[in-house]
Amino acid sequence: MSAPLNLINRFDLLITNSPASLPHVLAEFADQNITPTSVNAVCHKSGSLVVTVLVKHLNELRARALEARLKLVPAVKSARVEHMVT
Predict the structure, then answer these.
(1) How many CB atoms lie within 10 A of CB 76?
(2) Where are the domains of the chain?
(3) For 82, which of 9, 18, 66, 69 is 20 to 30 Å away at the CA?
(4) pLDDT score of 30
């Protein structure tokens, strides 16, 4: 018998480095009633923030819709979602 597959969506974001940027971007997740499993932010040498957000149990349609919404946020320079199996 095989173990069930766990699907995780990884959102890779490049955002501006200002005090309000990260909370504003994370509010997009809250607005959609999506709770991230983890959030990691690292300052890039260009001064931008590289943010990785992991979300479990999110179907592809909702993940792609959130990716599209994130791309509309002025603080977001780049947004990409990947689906991972663990």
Answers:
(1) 19
(2) 15-85
(3) 18
(4) 95
Which pair of tokens denotes residue 85?
Answer: 């199996």
Q: How many angstroms separate the first and last alpha carbons of the chain? A: 16
Closest to 40 in 3D by CA, of 66, 74, 73, 12:
12
Fold of the 15-85 domain: Alpha-Beta Plaits (3.30.70)
* Tokens at 20, concatenated: 């309000």
CA distance 17 to 77: 11
Of 86 and 58, the structure prediction assigns the larger pLDDT to 58
Distance CA(50)–CA(58), nearest Å, equals 22
Residue among 12, 71, 13, 17 at smallest CA distance from 43:
17
Global pTM reads 0.89
What is d(CA 46, CA 81) in angstroms, rounded to the nearest whole number? 22
